[in-house]
Amino acid sequence: MEQGKKIKVLYFAGSGRSGSTILNIILGNHPQIFGGGELQNMREVYNDSKICSCQNVLVNCEFWSSVVNDWFSKVEEDSTLSGFKKWSAFEGVFSFRAWFKMYFGIGEKSTEFKKYQMSTSEFLRAVQEHSKKEVLVDISKNPLRAWALEKNPDIDLRMVHLVRDGRAVTWSLKRTAERQNRNRPTWRAAIFWALINRMTNLVRSKVEHKTLVRYEDFIENPRKILTQIGEMAEIDFSDIINKIENNADFSIEHVMAGNGIRKADTIKFETTKTDGWMQKLKPSSKNLFKVLSYSSLRKFNYS
Ligand SMILES: [Zn+2]
Question: How far is the CA of 302 from the centre of ligand 1 (A)?
Fold first, then answer.
């Protein structure tokens, strides 16, 4: 990797359950790209209980432990956990204070902010070096992190606002909650979905290189959507598109956090399973969702 060259990050922002894990895996099969997963969650996953897609716990995963050790040798921190924790002070998506500061650029000349930026750059540089890939996919989704990356002089941010029908997102959240014997009320999912997408709209308006993608359109016409992302990111995705059209296997390397599908060895691009919610989500939930998030559904052309 060339020293001094900006690190290109292909960043997916928006709500969870929108298909970013699949995109992370598919794009990670491009010879220039490493798809690491939700990089912002390093603090939560870098302990002995969370498993990398290579089936090792992260601290024992050869790849991630090398990345973290390398990064740790370059930042002045007492521990890896406290070092990662500092990221959330600047990019905590539900912190009004963090949004306020980012919006008005408050404190951006401070040593603290510069240290935070340096910590992020060193981490990403270590991922670049150990993966030997130029471009990094980060599916953290958090729009505030995207904004912080845009302001980082070491980063060349390419942002994809990934959106999926909020009722599909709600159905997915409910299904997971059910399995864990919890309840996920529709109103909460609806408000979360509309809010996170509004935040992402705001950040998208502040970012130079960006594109808006609906997950359903990617499933329906992957060639069109990958070409669109490729033009924005200035990366040629023809090989990936051909692999999808030939129903080839996509291998999964060291994806550190995200949807459970990352734990398989390989996946195929599948054209089904995007509209299951239409039959399964209760009519009362569908109606409540529409009432609460009507304008956002319309904005993204969901009827
Ligand atoms: Zn691993």
Answer: 37
